[in-house]
């Protein structure tokens, strides 16, 4: 959207609020209109879709405190009679210089007080002759994935990784020019990367077509990268996975992403870790979990269990009368984090019911059932059901 379009649009009218509306009033008006005009609620309605875009654009400016201030200031400047009225020309031969207002023709801002800077935040521009394409730009971040075993996640590991990603061209060193040559300043834009064109009362800047907005011309492009200064390379990195890393956690490797432009810093590499499940152990924060099957007799009479840990084994005493599902804790047998804190091993006891029993075992179990017939394991449950029945 051009500067002129932006200034001429009445965003307050689009949202149906006054120019002194509060932030809450603007938010409320936008949400109401967005619900009414959303394309999902008006399938195939081009007019509703256009209105939805208009109110979204208005909200994008008015809901941002800084942009709203810029917008209000710009409308005051352009609607005042002291310079912009009367067909963009003042009386007495004092024509209003819009080029000065937008600070595009070089030099300092005129009587508008540097409106080029005022509008810079909205149009992603700045006053002066410098093009954003010629300023140093940070390289893009890169994300990749690595899969490790459960034990490696707990203890930490060093993992080699082959990565194909953009990197500074090794032949030209990132300049884009053939070795032995150097780029020269673009004569069309003077190295600014922008050219200014007049359109009526306005002067607009656009990227220079000769240098594609870079401000430099490469006569002999590098044969490897074709003048981009960047080429895709396959490299091997050694990644240190810290102990206790979680499944899905990202590890940041500073300066290992895509190279910057125009001398800007290199981006970062983010490695997302995926952990293979363990056949026995699970994880809950810093604690390891383990389900151990036991017999009814072991829980009823008590026993001593020997269970595995990730490194060795541990012996635990099970008191007589222990309920199925009880969790025993082996202190310090969990996951050690980088801060030195160590979790525990949580052992859940689960009764294992045999699928088949021989005649002797069945007879013994029946005898046990008869001997304990007076004991009702569901006594509390039945009492609760009876009380609810009486209440109804």
From TrEMBL:
Q: Name one GO biological process term.
A: DNA replication
Where, in this chain's numbering, is Zn(2+) 1 bound?
169, 172, 222, 225
- CXXCXGXG motif repeats at which positions? 169-176, 186-193, 208-215, 222-229
Residue numbers binding Zn(2+) 2: 186, 189, 208, 211
What are the residue ranges of zinc fingers typed CR-type?
156-234
Superkingdom of origin: Bacteria
Q: Would I find Transmembrane helix among this entry's keywords?
A: no
Keywords, A to Z? Chaperone, Cytoplasm, DNA replication, Metal-binding, Repeat, Stress response, Zinc, Zinc-finger
- Domain J, residue spans: 10-75
Domain remarks in the Swiss-Prot or TrEMBL record: The J domain is necessary and sufficient to stimulate DnaK ATPase activity. Zinc center 1 plays an important role in the autonomous, DnaK-independent chaperone activity of DnaJ. Zinc center 2 is essential for interaction with DnaK and for DnaJ activity.
| HAMAP family named in the record | DnaJ
- What protein family is recorded? Belongs to the DnaJ family.
What interactions and quaternary structure are annotated? Answer: Homodimer.
Please explain the role this protein plays, according to its UniProt record.
Participates actively in the response to hyperosmotic and heat shock by preventing the aggregation of stress-denatured proteins and by disaggregating proteins, also in an autonomous, DnaK-independent fashion. Unfolded proteins bind initially to DnaJ; upon interaction with the DnaJ-bound protein, DnaK hydrolyzes its bound ATP, resulting in the formation of a stable complex. GrpE releases ADP from DnaK; ATP binding to DnaK triggers the release of the substrate protein, thus completing the reaction cycle.
Query: Per its record, how is this protein called by name?
Result: Chaperone protein DnaJ
Source species, please? Umezawaea tangerina
